[in-house]
Every structure is written in C-alpha cells, then in structure tokens.
UniProtKB/TrEMBL annotation:
GO terms for molecular function: transaminase activity. Its cofactor is pyridoxal 5'-phosphate. It comes from the Bacteria. PROSITE patterns: AA_TRANSFER_CLASS_3. It comes from Dactylosporangium fulvum. PANTHER family: GLUTAMATE-1-SEMIALDEHYDE 2,1-AMINOMUTASE, GLUTAMATE-1-SEMIALDEHYDE 2,1-AMINOMUTASE 1, CHLOROPLASTIC-RELATED. Signal peptide: none annotated. This is Aminotransferase class III-fold pyridoxal phosphate-dependent enzyme.
Amino acid sequence: MAVQSLPDGYPQFIERADGARIWDVDGREYLDLMSSWGPIVLGHRYPAVEEAVRAQAVAGDCFDGTSPRMVELAEAFVDLVPYADWAMFAKNGTDATTLCCTIARAHTGREIIVVARGAYHGAAPWCTPYPAGVTAADRQNLVYFEYNDIDSLHAAIAGIEDRVAAVIACPVRHDVRREQELAEPQFARALRETCDRIGALLVLDEVRTGFRLDARGSWESFGVRPDLSAWSKAIANGYALSAVLGRADLRDAAGRVYTTGSFWFSAVSMAASLATLRVVSTPAFESNLRAAGQQLRTGLLAQAEAHGFRVRYTGPVQMPLLTFADDDDFALGNAWASAAINNGVYVHPYHNWFLNAAHTPEVIEEILQRTDAAYAALAGQPVAERGLLTG
Ligand SMILES: Cc1ncc(COP(=O)(O)O)c(C=O)c1O
C-alpha cells in the first residue's frame, strides 16, 4: 500500500521480516499486525515453508509443463475442504474471484452476478471500488444487495431469477472504512437456499478469510457450503498463489473456460502452499490463532478503557479492526495508528488486521506494552481533546 494513504509515520519500504517482526529500510523494527495485508499466516519466513521453497527452487520453478506440486496441492485442498472436488490455481485473488464468475456463467449459461454492495472482490474493472477507467459495460451484468439482509437479495433478483449465474459473498463483512460485521448464520443459510431455488451458484470469496477462520471453509460451522470459492493471500504464507475450488459437477465448466497466466504454474509457490497447508490443517494452529486474537482483544479493550477512549473492536478475533467512537473521519484512528507505529506496532486505522501464528502469547504481551504507550501518547495529543475522550 502506498504510504500516501497510510497514517503519518508509516514506512514505505520494508527491508526484511522474521516471525512477527518487520524492519524498514532505516532499520526500525515493528511488531507486525497486518501480516503483509493477509498473506503471512504462519509468521514471516516460517522455517518449513522456506525449506520447501528452497528445495523447489533448486529443482526449478517455471517449466514448460506443470510440476507435480500442482497435483499434490490440488489433492491436499480437496482433502482439506469438504465441498471441494477439484482445484485450479492462479496468482492473485482477483484472478480467482473473476474466474469463479466466469465458471458460473459457463456452467449456467446465465450472465448476472449478484454482489454485496461495498464488498471488495479485487481490482478488475468488474469489481474495483474506484470508477476511473471503468465503463458501464464492465458492470452491466451486476446487481447489488446488502450484506446480512436477505430481503435485499430477494428484492435485487426479483424478476431476473432465471438470469442469475451466481451470488458472490465474503464470509465476513470486512469492507474498508467501516466496522466489521460477522455473517449471521441464518443469512448464510438463506443465501444457500436462494441460490438453490433459482438455480444459481453460491461463490464464497475466501481471499481474505481463507486459513484464518476455519481452514475447511469459513461457513463450515454454519453448515453452509458454496459451489465455488476463491482463495489467495494466506494460502502460501507469502508466496504468490490463488486458488479456485469447486464442486464435481462444475469441473466441466471449469475445464471449458479459457484462462491462464505466464506465471500461474510456478512450482515454488505451490511447494510453499503445500507446506502451509500441513500446518493450518492442525487443530493447534486454529486454537492458538484464536487464543492470540482473544488475548489481543482483551488487552486492547482494557487499555482503551484505562486511558479513557471509547472504542469498537469488530470482526473475528483472528482478523480484527479497532475503531474509535464518533470518529467518522478516522482522525482519532489515524492518530492512534501513528502513535502505534511510533511505538513499533504496525496496524491500520480502517482496514482489518491479520493475526498469524508468530503472534505467541509473549509477542502479544509485547505488542500490548507498545499499544499502551500509544494510547498514553494519544491521550496527550490535541486530537484527543476534541470531545472524543470520554474518560
Ligand atoms: C475479499 C477479497 N477478495 C479479493 C481480493 C483481491 O485479491 P488480490 O489483491 O490478490 O487480487 C482481496 C484483496 O484484498 C480481498 O480482500
């Protein structure tokens, strides 16, 4: 992310990283709560992943044909994710979400994709949040509904049910610049039922949530399984890879769609992903990540209260967001994030954070010592005197 959109004091260039720590080009160390904006799920330079990467790099990365790692990885995903009967791979999350839409259209012969308003699905013209360079034609087959509001979905598709190829949704409402919102189980189930009723596919965009909430699929505990899903970010612990997973009867459509990229078959990132999958599929990984998230949440809320700030802590504890009450322009959030970076904690004021397995109880404790200093610094700043302090 360009430094112009980051709060004051954020470094633009990072020189190196290890575990939960990153160092900028001036040698300043930060405890990293953004995890490279999602990709780092085991910690920076996780030894088993780096070992797999080195071994694959010695054998080669980019070949005329695919490496066997691709088949091994597809099998590992199919074993891990209950609804997945096949997997295909690309590089970025946008590749995967776009591919899901294309496969859904190829399978159903329909054109419309139903999208939650404000959701981020990538940077292609059909889904970018910014209008520059986007034509009406790029969006003409999209209709919008409100997240967690099944009536708005029904209203959006009224009269066009037989033209809907897919409904795409994220497992959590993690749109930027607003509090996060967990999916209500009845909303997730109603999405599934509506798709079944109208013969459309349910696409789950796991690009941000994948491997952090439930490696089997984020709505597995609701008993809701999509037909197709898009994954990226954390699946190779920092190496460039994305995946589309799908149900058996969509294999034919997936095979008919033309899609490729010069570097999509790179074996190194697939070797990295195989090593990552081995760890994230263990119960200890999931419970430790949740416990770290809970420890951070408890500590940050206690500190806010002690320093007299009213805050909101939203989203899953593994990918939380801290915002301040009555702070619509994020002035206080920006000031707190600046104080945090000055005290050596890398966070963001309005994009969710990402915990990773290097956030051990000791590291969280160290983070909390630094955030306590950040709150203390903020309490002394003019921005905190504009009626926003409550204590
Ligand atoms: C939910 C979601 N979908 C899709 C994308 C696009 O992924 P990428 O930036 O790798 O293209 C992102 C990226 O942040 C995302 O958060």
